Amino acid sequence: MTGLPLQMAMLSASVATATNGYVLARKMGGDPEFYAAAASIQVMVSMISMPAILLLLD
Known about the structure:
Layout: H1 3-13, H2 21-27, H3 32-57
């Protein structure tokens, strides 16, 4: 796989987790504070990794 399909696949793999999991964690007796922290870290990492992936693949 090369070109645009590869870029789309790599970008899809580097997206942060869904934030609606926080609501599910709270409603189903999970650990919403941990989920919020993990999701926040993933968003911060993806802000750096997504442009880096595009630069590497371009």
